[in-house]
Amino acid sequence: MQITLSQYAGFCEGVDRAYNMIKKIALDPKVKKPIFVLGALVHNEDVVKSLEKLSVVTISDKKDFFKEINTLKGRIGTLAITAHGMGPKIYNFAKKKKIALVDTTCPRVIKAQRLAKLFSEKNYQLVIVGEKGHKEVEGIFEWGNKKAKFVEKEADFKKLKLDPKKKIAVLSQTTQNQEFVRHAWDVLRKKYPQVEIVDTLCLTTQNRQNEVRKKALKNDAVVVIGSPTSANSTRLWEISQEINQKSYFIERRNQLRKSWFKDCQKIWVTAGASTPTWIIEEVMEYLGRSN
Ligand code: SF4
Fold this sequence. Notes:
17% strand, Rossmann fold, alpha/beta, flat, binds iron/sulfur cluster, Cobalt-precorrin-4 Transmethylase, domain 1
């Protein structure tokens, strides 16, 4: 059995940068502790636990951050924004409450945020191709003055009502499926010829998605390692599954089943942008041993 690993598997530049920034400040005696990270820095329990040992505490993405911060009151040393970024409210809030804030927002997300702000200030009708409720998208939405409309699936095009006489701008979630985003651009261009489109897709994500499209065709089975809460990992698996029925989405090595690879000669493994190296190594080692 031939087992190969994606050239892009694991942390992307944005997550790697955020993780290293947090680790660096956690070890810096001048930075006030504990550091409360607003949401999952990396979608992995082991990473979260290892950071806890350095007084880095994660506030769950499922919680209302502002409510949580208020309940923590004076116990916060420093607040940290993850690579996904957040809206302007948190920056104003931290300033008002005099809480130190460390911002690890990925520069590619910052680009989308700045554009949302700019278009909103210029009175454009803004459309975001992305998942409503996703942290990165919510941040971009907030920078756009909470006026943007969302397109996430085919059915949303019908529901989308824009004034054809006014200016329209389109941005997208950095980790969206590029095929759907390009399709959205075509649909919107046809309906609203004046539309201005800015490509805010992340190149790293696009490379990963292009690779999975090719490899899912050429291999007998595909394993995607990542958390179900990670948008880019989920997207990789969705793309793979459309092409190859033997596509499996796992978070940990112990979820692998030997029966999945019966009659398989070639297995290809990839991992989402927030999957730590050691999890990937565990999976590769296990697959190699079962060979
Ligand atoms: S997937 Fe792209 S946009 Fe998102 S954090 Fe990584 S590098 Fe940045």
